[in-house]
Sequence to fold (70 residues):
Amino acid sequence: GKAELIVVGGGPAGLEMTGNLWRFVRGRGRVAHITLVAGSTLLNGLPERARRIALASFTRRGIAVWKRTR
Fold:
């Protein structure tokens, strides 16, 4: 079956970890359902444009982002 992977933390480190995890899985020819649990919001404290770009990138890759969730 497909692996279910969850990264907790919507800051820059959580985003980097999620993206690297996606590349790691894909680089091995595997498929996984990856979810980032962002807490209050994605990239809190950074400009809205940064949040939109990150969210669009994850959406294109099929990565789920849960906001306002702990």
